[in-house]
Amino acid sequence: MKKITPHGRGRLLRDPPARPIAREAPSAGRPNAAPPYGRRETDVSRPLRIAAAAALAGGAGLLLPALALAAEAKKLDPGNTAWVLTSTALVLFMTIPGLSLFYGGLVRAKNILSLLMQCFAITCLVSLLWLAYAYSLAFTEGGGANALLGGLGKAFFKGVGVESLQGDIPETVFAMFQLTFAIITPALFVGGFAERMKFSSLLVFTALWVTLVYAPVAHWVWGGGWLAGLGALDFAGGTVVHINSGVTALVAALIIGPRRGFPETPMIPHNLPMTVTGAGMLWVGWFGFNAGSALAANGTAGMAMLVTHMSAAAGALAWMVSEWTRHGKPSVLGIATGAVAGLVAITPASGTVGPMGGLLLGALAGFICFSATSYMKQVLKVDDSLDVFPVHGVGGLLGAILTGVFTAKGLGGAGFAEGMTLGRQLWVQIVGAGATLVYAGVVSFILLKIVDAAMGLRAPANEEVEGLDLALHNETGYELR
């Protein structure tokens, strides 16, 4: 049975590489050798030989630190570093501009700037929180509370310098890569309450949420917390990113309430070309999201890229077929959303499943997320504005749980860790997904209620009717003359 290599994020931080031991510098000459045949050592030559030996020894002493530094430098892998640097840029590109455009085209024209502003501001806010303490909470040892949360040993990046390594990449690169995940997660949940939440309240809630929800869950899975100890598989964020953001969006949509006029008044997307452009950017950026999570330019990264692409394609076609069958015509919005659903579902599994596992996960996500979206809108009448929960919440749950199935070697996956069976792995995946769902839902509910009591969550009725672009930002997205 093939043993799975632990996820790069957790492995690097919990088991830092030992410092290399410098090898002794080779001695120049042979001071202990006998003189050449027929040659006698004279009284003059002997002091000269002793002086030369001393000089060589001194030179070797000076050379040893340089050799040690050279050995240390060899631990940084330029190829892996270059790939993770590229992946970091790709994942940030997913939020600004990818997700911003995808969401922006789905809202009404009077709210386009408010949506773009939310994504941009979240990017800036989370970046500063990450520097201050969130990175440390997620990815350092937490002492007695380590199962639940990290410590503050690296607050304000204390001890993180040019020479700091995590495995064979700089820790600065590792921290930046992880930051892009922390950015996109709260940016995802703004779609659940788009067009009706106060901007100031969003910023306060996001700061609290990153501190009390995102950082702990990231630590559970990737920072050596209790889910990592159980052996939960989440290669790139099925629990940490998608279940987390999906359930938060649902809770917020229920607390804030539907948009005015929903469901009687159609809330038609104002710019579908913008949305499809954003979806394409998300698709490309997702290669950094999933393949970059290998933290190396290796075969695992290559397979992650392959299965990511196949899952997106299968999800897009499955959603298109579902919509075509139910409504008589396929839509460009449907095929784009299906691709995103496939990308969501493959995220936790991308490092451990094979091509057929990726295809099946994507197809299932397309069918199931389409049904979940229709059920929420038409039966439950829940106004999750941009379908965050049925796509990211349901897709994340599907992917997280079925990772425990499609990782099986008999199904083309990498195989389970030593001592782990399919049944046990499946149970661990269910526990991880369920714990994240409950924790994120409960804590988000409490935080939303606190912010609502302190400053109100919902924009006033007149501002909602006017549009948040003008009401909150005194701007309009389009000047039509």
UniProtKB/TrEMBL annotation:
The chain crosses the membrane at residues 48-70, 82-103, 115-135, 173-194, 201-223, 235-256, 268-289, 301-320, 332-350, 356-376, 388-406, 426-448. Residues 1-41 are annotated as: Disordered. Residues 82-478 form the Ammonium transporter AmtB-like domain. One of its GO terms (cellular component) is plasma membrane. InterPro entries: Ammonium/urea_transptr (IPR029020), Ammonium_transpt (IPR001905), Ammonium_transpt_CS (IPR018047), NH4_transpt_AmtB-like_dom (IPR024041). This is Ammonium transporter. One of its GO terms (molecular function) is ammonium channel activity. It is found in: Cell membrane; Membrane. NCBIfam families: amt. The keyword Membrane applies. The keyword Zinc does not apply. It is a multi-pass membrane protein. It comes from the Bacteria. Residues 1-11 have a biased composition (Basic residues).
